Amino acid sequence: MRVLQLHSKPPVPKVDGGCLAADAMAQGLIEAGCEIKVVCASTDKHPCDLPALQAAYPGAQCAHISTGLGLLQKAQLALGFGIPILHRFYDKQLEEVIHGALKEFQPDIVLFEGLFMSIYLAGVLAVNPNQVVVLRSHNREHLIWRRLAKTGNPLLRLAYHRVSRNLRKAERRTVKDLSAIVPLSMKEANSWRKDGWNGPLHVAPFGVKPLGPPMPTWPSGPFRMGHLGAMDWAPNAEGIAWFLEHCWGIIHTLHPETTFHIAGRKMPQGLGAGISGVVNHGEVPDADAFCKDLHLIVVPLLSGGGTRIKIIEALVRGNAVLATPVAAEGLDLVSGSDCIIADPQDPKDFALAASSMIKDPEGVQELACNGRRKAANEFDRKAIGSSVLQHFEKLTI
Description:
By secondary structure, this protein is of the alpha/beta class. It is built from 16 helices and 12 strands. The protein has 2 domains: about 220 residues, Rossmann fold; about 160 residues, Rossmann fold. Helix content is about 45%, strand content about 15%. Strand 10, helix 13 and strand 11 form a beta-alpha-beta unit. Helix 7 packs antiparallel against helix 8 and helix 11 packs parallel to helix 14. The longest helix is centred in the middle third of the chain and has 22 residues.
């Protein structure tokens, strides 16, 4: 089966959760026997290294697009119109590349990786009205903005609520022309059903490669907590700011030998400056190397949507995880067995959950082992790819 996969950013290098999810889907389908053709946008934020992309996906193509907002579009966004967020991904040159790939590759399935690429859906169907078109739903975009609307700034609250409402309308319009939706979690699937989608739907979580050696060596030395995430994604920046302001002081007072390490793309140099025990590593070249020296990964998200792929990666690496309910959403993890999920409603409770873990290093190590087994059993990439292929085969009958 031939699958044309359309991306709003290059799937490699895997610099964030969206890239990881798209690459995992492609690799899982390849391992299941599919022939994959990748076409992606190259942006200033996510530039495409074409030789590297083609090394991973022979024959892959990209086109540079400008996703910056003009004055009019910024005004529209400030007033709460959701359309500019989607339309900034439209580019005539990229559309021509997509249409060329449709005619040359003759795909059985066109897979849109995320809502943003659905801006090309009408054009794809204009080329072939019978084309099977599937949305790989990474998250419900409107939910991210709805949760961001909890900010204390009244003007931002109003704008974010309007953006959320308009994005939800855009999601509903988009699905009318789809053949199927492939969400990352059952919770997300239920959300689409609740919004009226009655067509084919197949849940396919983020997949990881089969585990290598046994449990990695547990780090020695004083307890080290950390967070790895792109800081140009608003929910990450919001969550870390909240954690540093409301939780870290409590933790560090109780455990002055414990340190908190932060790293990620677009990391502000001054973040954490002057806060005792906080170490800012900036953008690190090797995420695995950064995380292997940590005893605990903290994911303090207060907003956002979709599935936190970084949590699955942390579990696979052998890191214990402390997360908010929003962060663990859609992963079907059991708090106390696979990870610790603590409610951020009272920051002191979240801080004390971290403190309890620091006091019990053996329990944390056992938690990490359990989480790693859970990830191996439920997020096997090849098995997920095979299940998606079977779903695709039914769509093309």
